[in-house]
Amino acid sequence: MMNEILRDLSEPALINAIEENLFAFHPYFLGWSRSGGQTSPKLLWNITDIPFPLFNYAFNARFMPEDADREIEVVIARGRSRKVPLLWFIGPSTTPADLGQYLIAHGFVHDGDSPGMAADLHKLQDDRAEVPHLTITPVKDIESLKIWCDILVAGYGMPESVGPAFLDWFSSFRLDPQMPLRHYIGWWNGKPSAIASMLLAAGTAGVYNITTLPEARGKGIGSAMTLTPLLEARAEGVRVGVLQSTAQGFPVYRKLGFQEYCSIGSYVLDA
Hints:
Layout: H1 11-23, H2 26-30, E1 36-39, E2 44-47, E3 57-59, H3 65-82, E4 86-90, H4 99-105, E5 109-120, E6 134-138, H5 142-155, H6 163-170, E7 181-188, E8 191-201, E9 204-212, H7 221-235, E10 240-244, H8 250-256, E11 259-269
Parallel strand pairs: 3-4, 9-10
Antiparallel strand pairs: 1-2, 2-3, 4-11, 5-10, 5-11, 6-7, 7-8, 8-9
């Protein structure tokens, strides 16, 4: 659990929390045997041997404009050394503010922007009807984690080849519903059909990996998968929930009480 709960609901504090919760995934990568990354005042980055962008990333850039080209080339060289694609996140605190244009000039492709959203969990719209025949359980062991990873890959349309990499990564640290990083499976009509994750960090509850298999969509399962970890966090005293939304999820999160405060941009460079 976190040492200090965020209670400042001002816009600057919420924007900072949205970014900081995302950055808090970085240490989980650094402790993995297949990772080779670093934390510095200028940049958080990680490189693996896995040819999938999510495993080879950079974010929290703090560059002077005159240094940006050189720093980007250093990251590109790391990716080329492993022959892997790169993913670069930029947000409100990124400097220079136009880093996205620098990345495009170096061959990166803008892969879209995700609304950074936050909600006061005391005002969460948690009175939505329960989904019939849906049971949500925490991931506690490798067997359930494998099911979770299978849904992650299928739900987001990822290559099946990255499933074992996600399983290896997530199994490299403790699976415990009381730890800061928690995973959930939604069982609809007895079949594993949806997943969610929650990361307690930066004084907030960050919700990630919300996806439902195609055959179970349109039934309110996504809302239920989002609410479950947030209500759990609220019961533990957490005040703020944060997330980065997809276009499909945006109206769902708005109905739950989330508001958009910033944008997180994604830029991808092929191997």
